[in-house]
# Entry
Amino acid sequence: MELIELIKQAREVIIFSEGRETPLGEKERAAFDLILNDVFEGGYEMPALGVSLDALVKEATKTGTWIQFVFPRAYTHREMPFEALLTEIKEGFGGLEFMRMNNGKYAGRDYYYSLARGVSADKLYRFAAEYVGRK
# Structure
């Protein structure tokens, strides 16, 4: 199964903004999923060069805007297991690096999803910023 199809199966989506965690409600999740489909349309997975270290990832989520996808069970993709995926989003990003959480820790190789030519993560970033701003 493709990475993007796995991401759509997340049980919960949590926005991290400047260290504050805000889970999406049911209504917001539906709107988020539409934006996610739009942003990921025509994109493709690429080999990731990144490797996550738990302490560094957790420290990094204290600043900026991040999206965590939490799954109902552990999945394996490209022979790498995960129970949650975390990605930082900024305006202008043309791709997203997904850090894998397994057994409660971020560790090991990441996944990278390149957005289609001319597409950026701006819509995801704006949605997250507006949603957290309302909470």
Q: What stands out?
A: Helices lie at 3-7, 26-40, 54-60, 122-134. Strands lie at 12-17, 20-23, 44-46, 51-53, 65-77, 80-88, 95-102, 105-109, 111-114. The mean pLDDT is 94. The chain has one domain: 3-134.
